[in-house]
Amino acid sequence: MGVWSLYFLAKLGLYWGQFSGLNWGYNLLFAVALAWPLPQRRWRLLRHLLAVPVAVALLYHDSFLPPLARLWSQRGVLASFTPDYALELAARFVSVPVLVGLACAALAYLLLHRRLRFATLAVLGLLTVPLLPAPGFWARDASAGATLNDRGAANAAAPLTLGQLEQRLAAFHAREAERQLALPTGATPAFDIVVLSVCSLSWDDLDEVRLRDAPLMQRFDIVFRQFNSAASYSGPALLRLLRANCGQTPQAALYQAAPAGCYLFDGLARAGYKPALLMNHDGHFDGFAQQLRDQGGLQSSGAAPLVDTAARVAMRSFDGTPIRADDETLMRWWRAGASDPAPRALLYNTISLHDGNRVPGLASQRSSETFKPRLLKFFADLERFIALVEDSKRPTLLLLVPEHGGAVRGDAVQIPGLRELPTPAITAVPALVKLIGFDGLPQGMAPISVDRPSSYHALAALIAALLPHGRTLGGREQLEALVRELPGTDWVSENEGTVLLRQGANSWLRTPQGSWVPYRP
Question: 344-388: per-residue pLDDT in tens?
């Protein structure tokens, strides 16, 4: 086997160090093919030449990188990245400890290959893989666990084993397909609605930059502690938000027509609202704005995409296009419609926190290092907008709904910024609600926490529950009663070809190949 033994020992080291997966059968077969004795030198040379592309392909197959088919389908998106952002991403794949370890292994091989049979060590190492417990993040624990539940621990049922996961997922979608609510119509709504769709903000991101308890977070009246965005990319997340009147569908169904009653902003228009879509970017990337109109029901609601090009440019996105300042964009829109008595429903989409953004004037241009300053700036912008709304005396229901996390921390499986796997660290987002100018609520009251798993349907249910009350609520107690009745949603997240199902602290991942594996980062 010669120097190829170093290849397999290095892969074993990456596997046990939790930097890579390892397909035991393929690697063992490859090792046997390389170790099989061949009498003639030319055949051995040909084997070495043929082994190089096979080794590269197998290394990529065992890695946690997206499948090549996925990369090919996103080639246009990847080509739009600016050169400096592409270099930043490439640098994240480089791990200094891994490089040092591989260099030490190569040095040991050069010094000892005449004294030790490295090929024997490599084969023995491969043979022990199925005999030992797998690394922690892919722990093959097939023991039973408590089932998922909609309403918390009170709905616990029989144990769920790995063999039942496919049936459990089908049952989840069947139950979600039965959910649909209609927003009340008839009376003119007594308050405005502003939905802030924030790209790249999760609880894990807040923990990484130590801003979970930032003062702004305490100013909201309702905090969803276990809100699942159900998607790791913006397009699917926004489509789920825009279809919040109905239950959670498989991701593929998001790009098909939904029943008319499922569209949130179409329902708001029927309830008497004047819908609007505002963005701090041009919405051209990956056909984002058009996707919201075509599959999100915004076209039927009359909410045309709007970009305030008069607002100042705060930064440049990963593809070099301008990103407008959040405070100026929101405040200019608010002031422009202040004299219109008609109730308004705004969906505002911001990408100020997106990975790869470049901020003029900051010493570091690496987006991973500018995330915290950008987040603090966004919080300050939002504080100014809230103050403007409060001063206007117009009752307003403000909802902050992140689309997904930014994967600022990353984990053993995905580098920072990579969101192919919809892990809880990415899809667990801080959904927040603030009732501005409502009568009956005490000033400065502590936030009401929603601790059970929830998703977009709960937000639609909250709007539907508040509409009949107008701008008056009977104190915190009545709001708490409304919140207690909001529907929960089992934790199922998706990306293209990948599904993550969570119950309690345990998660299972269905790979694009259709197999289920426990996921424990």
Answer: 999 999 999 999 999 988 766 778 889 999 999 999 999 999 999
Please name the amino acid found at residue 73: S
**Residues in CB range of 455: below 8 A, 6 or more apart:** 227, 228, 229, 230, 240, 248, 489
Residue 384: count of CB within 10 angstroms of its CB = 13
Q: Are 245 and 460 in contact (CB under 8 A)?
A: yes
Residues 85 and 231 in one domain: no
Whether 329 is in a domain gets the answer yes
Contact between residue 426 and residue 228 where contact means Cβ atoms under 8 Å apart: no
How many domains is the chain built from?
Answer: 2
Q: CA 425, CA 206: separation in Å to the nearest integer?
A: 11
| Rounded Cα distance, 103 and 477, in Å | 64
The per-residue DSSP string of 100-164 comes to: HHHHHHHHHHHHHTTTS-HHHHHHHHHHHGGGSPPPGGG------BPPP-SSSGGG--S-B-GGG
In 3D, which of 447, 475, 335 has the Cα closest to residue 391?
A: 335
Residues 95 and 188 in one domain: no
- Domain contains 44: yes
Domain that holds residue 398: 181-488
Q: Which residues of 90-124 are buried (b: 16+ CB within 10 A; e: fewer)?
A: eeeeeeeebeebbeeeeeebeeeeeeeebbeebbe
Measured in degrees and rounded to the nearest 5, phi and psi for residue 32 equal -65, -40
Considering only CA atoms, which of 90, 92, 84 is closest in space to residue 317?
A: 84
Same domain, 257 and 386: yes
State pLDDT tens for residues 170-181.
999 999 999 999
pTM, two decimals, is 0.84
Residue 411: alpha-carbon gap to chain centroid: 14
Sheet with strand 506-510: strands edge to edge: 491-495, 498-503, 506-510, 516-519
Per-residue pLDDT tens digits for 414-428: 889 889 899 999 999
Residue type, 268: L
